[in-house]
């Protein structure tokens, strides 16, 4: 069963090594140094540079539709025989939103609320970036269901760093 692993910047090396991941998604502020694990070829690493904000702010790069489009193009090219690791700085907001978006995009038949609940169960601190989710909801034609699902789980517990967790791409049988 294919898995999506979510972690913080400090845990990407260990997470890639432990999971045998073939692909890596980085969602982080521009200029933040990120060392790509040697097990991940450069063409299997998506680096999206933007700030973890919900509204545009002077001097910052907000999440945009172009970031969602790049994420969707990348994950649609991923062959899920091996896991994918998605990380941001803390493993709480941008990465959890990207994991949610990935499952919604690759498994359109899955229920958004069920996926959001699995994120909450996997990470009590998860607070998916709602701006990213809004763009994805629109692009994927989910008619507000993605946004509603994330709003329903609410803000996660305060934490400096999220606890790594994983999501199954497919429903466990």
Automatic annotation (TrEMBL):
<dbReference type="InterPro" id="IPR000387">
    <property type="entry name" value="Tyr_Pase_dom"/>
</dbReference>
<feature type="domain" description="Tyrosine specific protein phosphatases">
    <location>
        <begin position="69"/>
        <end position="120"/>
    </location>
</feature>
<dbReference type="InterPro" id="IPR016130">
    <property type="entry name" value="Tyr_Pase_AS"/>
</dbReference>
<dbReference type="InterPro" id="IPR029021">
    <property type="entry name" value="Prot-tyrosine_phosphatase-like"/>
</dbReference>
<dbReference type="Pfam" id="PF00102">
    <property type="entry name" value="Y_phosphatase"/>
</dbReference>
<protein>
    <submittedName>
        <fullName>Tyrosine phosphatase family protein</fullName>
    </submittedName>
</protein>
<dbReference type="InterPro" id="IPR000242">
    <property type="entry name" value="PTP_cat"/>
</dbReference>
